[in-house]
């Protein structure tokens, strides 16, 4: 299991880096839209949608994404999607997580899928268009947080973070992840030429401190995204969102924490 997990992760990272830095713009859009379509297929499984209805849901999301990418002047409208995403993740999802035993209706789940998936798609396109390195650095926040939380939780974990949703996560793992991410944020804020938050009227040390706090906030958002997808699986009686990635499960199992992180980052760095 561990071997297949490591091999899959290595293959995914290699393919992602090659696509991120070398694919032309239109090919990148198609690649991201394909991943979005798989994610939409898996999300529709949370609502137990089958047959033509499931296919129609995937085609709707993928078609909307491609239409937006190729026909809409995104800098004008994308902040609206990011703002809606923040409302969804900051207000709706915490209330949703409190309804642990009871799953919402299928229609609500499908609308939530659009609210979760589509802003991330837009953010991936815009962050990459601004700077592939910026997109990679932002995603690395989640990868670092997940990895440190896993190993810290295994070594020191005692208190469960959300036992009814994700029994494997611990508060010790979360704190370890946040400390690691804070150090990463400090390195980011000091790295020459790196993209930083615009904080007018403050000294450089204060701006660096704000940058570190923002990076930590993104890691917290990633934890919320992870818990939300875990709850969706639990309410649908699923162990994984899919089986396309050996040792990892589905696409949503790999991007769950990125769903809230990328729209927030795009709004802050590009807005």
Q: Describe it for me?
A:
This protein is mostly helical and 271 residues long. The protein has one domain. Helices cover 77% and strands 3% of the residues. It is built from ten helices and two strands; from the N terminus they run ααααααββαααα. A hairpin with a 3-residue loop joins strand 1 and strand 2. Helix 5 packs across helix 6, helix 5 crosses helix 10 and helix 6 packs across helix 8. It is globular and about 55 Å long. 37% of the residues are buried. The mean pLDDT is 89.
List keywords for this structure.
two-stranded antiparallel ribbon, 2 strands, mainly alpha, 271 residues, 10 helices, 77% helix
Compile the SSE list and pairings.
Blueprint: H1 2-22, H2 25-46, H3 51-71, H4 74-97, H5 106-130, H6 132-156, E1 160-162, E2 166-170, H7 171-190, H8 204-235, H9 251-255, H10 258-270
Antiparallel strand pairs: 1-2
Helix pairs in contact: 2-3, 2-5, 3-5, 4-5, 4-8, 4-10, 5-6, 5-10, 6-7, 6-8, 6-10, 7-8, 8-10
Strand content: under 5%
Number of strands: 2
| Main sheet characteristics | 2 strands, antiparallel
- Trace the largest sheet across and list its strands: 1-2
Q: Kindly state the mean pLDDT as a whole number?
A: 89
Per the principal axes of the C-alpha atoms, what is the gross shape? globular
**pLDDT under 50 segments (min length 5)?**
none
Structural class: mainly alpha
Number of helices: 10
Q: Give the total of domains.
A: 1
Distance between the termini: 42 Å
Could you estimate the helical fraction of the residues in percent? over 70%
Order of secondary-structure elements = HHHHHHEEHHHH
- Rounded to an integer in angstroms, the radius of gyration calculated over CA atoms is 18 Å
